[in-house]
Amino acid sequence: MDQKERIGHVHSIESFGTVDGPGVRFVVFLQGCPLRCKYCHNPDTWKPGIGTEMTADQILEQFFRNEPFYHNGGITVTGGEPLLQIDFVTELFTKAKARGVHTCVDTSGITFRNDDPDQLARFDALCAVTDLVLLDIKHPDPEAHKELTGHSNENILEFAHYLAARHKDTWIRHVVVPGITDNEEEWKKIGELMAHLPNVKALEVLPYHTMGIKKYETLGMDYPLKGVPALKAEVAKHAREVILIARRKALEHPGN
Ligand code: SF4
Q1: What PROSITE patterns would the database entry show (predicted)?
Q2: Cβ(10)–Cβ(29) under 8 Å?
């Protein structure tokens, strides 16, 4: 093994993912996340520095074993929060792009820092080898975001504008949770934000589900949304329409 190769802490790998970016994808879940989203269904990814230690070459070797399956897809790195290991992701994507693989990162954007030149340089390096960013907008309001995830959304919104300034293809994701984000005014704010992000190519609005409860039980953890029912798919569909209408209106009447 090359002495200089970085080690990534991998939670798990899904060989044929179909929901994390375009086409059939090789999905790498990295370990570690600083957020504590109340609806998180992967609390086993939170702890950093554990999991399987892998190099970028080892991951790519697995990818290329089934390469024909990914001709319309590529590699997605998710988590946890994959950009806790940003240098590793950049190394993996640099090697993947050199071999013509489509690269996608699914992130909350929480580690972005506009005021730290070193961190900004890291994001620039990542951006140069990333084809698509899946960005979670968990709540448009900073206080409500903190209540939902444990952190304000300021860096996340800055990251969204950073991606727009670099014309980086981005898909926005939003989870609708009954009693927390099932609010038309908040949906409209997401649409208004999107009006400032011409790089956004798609919007995925996902209904909250309760499939994570078992994991919390297994880990001996309290489930933060006990008693909150799963969201009906029609509500998520309606939320998506409200967001897109608000975006259109904001683009048509930018001063309002
Ligand atoms: S960002 Fe993702 S992995 Fe981290 S707590 Fe939120 S839902 Fe869970």
Answers
A1: RADICAL_ACTIVATING, RADICAL_SAM
A2: yes
Q: How confident is the model at residue 4 (pLDDT cuts 50, 70, 90)?
A: confident
pLDDT value, residue 189: 97
Residue nearest to atom 3 of ligand 1 (CA): 80
C-beta 153 within 6 A of ligand 1? no
In sequence order, the β-bridge partners of residue 12 are 29
As a whole number of angstroms, the distance between CA 183 and CA 15 comes to 36
The distance in angstroms from the start CA to the end CA of the chain is 58
Q: Which residues contact 41 (CB under 8 A, 6 or more apart)?
A: 209, 211, 212, 215
Q: For domain 7-251, is the CATH number 3.10.20.340?
A: no
Candidate from 9, 20, 35 with most ligand 1 atoms within 8 A of CB, to mutate: 35
Phi, psi of 239 (to 5 degrees): -60, -40
pTM to 2 decimal places: 0.96
Q: What is the pLDDT of residues 88-144, one digit of tens each?
A: 999 999 999 999 999 999 999 999 999 999 999 999 999 999 999 999 999 999 999
